[in-house]
Design brief:
The termini are far apart. This protein has one domain: Rossmann fold. The strands form five sheets. It has a seven-stranded mixed beta sheet. Strands 1-2-4-5 form a four-stranded mixed beta sheet. The model has no long low-confidence stretch (mean pLDDT 96). The longest helix has 14 residues. The chain is of the alpha/beta class. It is globular and about 60 Å long. The chain has nine helices and 17 strands.
């Protein structure tokens, strides 16, 4: 049966929250979106996971930059060939790095750099209920295992990313990690649930950033912590850039704030203790073309004669990391 592609699906976590959740609404959205993971559009990814469904390992390490799962010697030559084919199906790998059964995967984004910047500035995740908004393939979720959270829910509406996550989760089978095909717009269905919410690389993709911040605040427990990573522009004034069409060749970019503007959004959404702990231009070392992501990347998105501008002529991207409390 094709559903065997999911070797590990943790038991439902919703009952433990009881009346806290908008249970019916969550189940309705789930019911609408569950067919996405079995659709013809994502069949190659499902088939790739199915092809290595029987592979097993008892070894993984999520404490360092590359998430490492399995050892090369655990696979027969035929299994190694099947595994490599499955990994290549998910190219381009956008988030990483990984080392899976001895195969290093250098993704387009050095997500480990972001995690290393964030971790020293947040409350310890041990025994906390955590949401990872826009979790993609689960890189940050897997890194969180090392911090011993009670629960991590990844919100990600892209079915391809579900299968990329499942490829790894099938091997390490972590019972406190959950992947929901929900977006940030559904986070308020979890009122007063999370101790920590990560919203990394999401805010500037939405037309109502303050509205989303208010929903994020609803989902935090009193005293809970929000961690924001937002792309923006340099400048001292509390203003935001709205690109006419594309920004650095990307569609779906609505507002790119200055640091002051981002902090103002967060304050107006009702947060307190707002602290920006990182503000730097996005580096060509952090987002770049690799063998596992052979696509145009940041270098191609900037003006080759002036790296402080995008190819459209806008200010080149900065990244702002902000911590705030409910």
């Amino acid at each position: 049966m094709e559903r065997e592609a999911i070797a590990f699906w943790p038991p439902d976590y919703l009952d433990e929250f009881g009346s806290l959740l908008n249970y019916v609404a969550i189940l309705e959205v789930r019911g609408d979106r569950q067919p996405w993971i079995w659709s013809d559009r994502v069949q190659p990814y499902r088939a790739a996971v199915q092809s290595v469904y029987e592979l097993k390992t008892e070894w993984f390490d999520v404490s360092e930059a590359a998430i490492r799962v399995g050892k090369a010697h655990e696979l027969t030559p035929k299994q190694a060939e099947q595994w490599m084919a499955a990994l290549k199906t998910f190219c381009p790998w956008k988030k990483g790095p990984f080392e899976l059964f001895g195969i290093p995967i250098d993704a387009e984004w050095r997500s480990d750099l972001k995690w290393e910047r964030i971790l020293p500035h947040i409350q310890p995740l041990a025994q906390r209920k955590v949401a990872d908004i826009g979790c993609h393939n689960g890189y940050f979720m897997f890194r969180m295992i090392h911090e011993n959270p009670e629960l991590v829910i990844g919100f990600e509406p892209v079915a391809k990313h579900f299968w990329n996550f499942q490829l790894i989760q099938n091997l390490i089978q972590q019972p406190n990690l959950y992947f929901e095909l929900l977006g940030v717009e559904h986070i308020d269905l979890y009122p007063n649930v999370f101790d920590t919410i990560f919203c990394l690389g999401i805010l500037y993709h939405h037309a109502d950033p303050i509205g989303l911040l208010r929903k994020l605040r609803e989902a935090l427990e009193p005293g809970g912590e929000l961690i924001i990573d937002c792309q923006g522009i340099p400048g001292e004034e509390a203003i935001a850039l709205t690109p006419r069409k594309r920004y650095a060749q990307a569609k779906g970019i609505w507002f790119l704030p200055t640091q002051s503007c981002l902090e103002t959004w967060i304050a107006r959404a009702g947060f307190t203790d707002i602290h920006c702990f990182y503000a730097e231009p996005l580096s060509l070392a952090e987002q770049r073309r690799t063998a596992w992501a052979d696509i145009d990347s940041l270098k191609e998105f900037l003006n080759p004669n002036d790296l402080t501008r995008t190819i459209e002529g806008y200010p080149a991207p900065w990244r702002y990391y902000v911590r705030a409390s409910k």
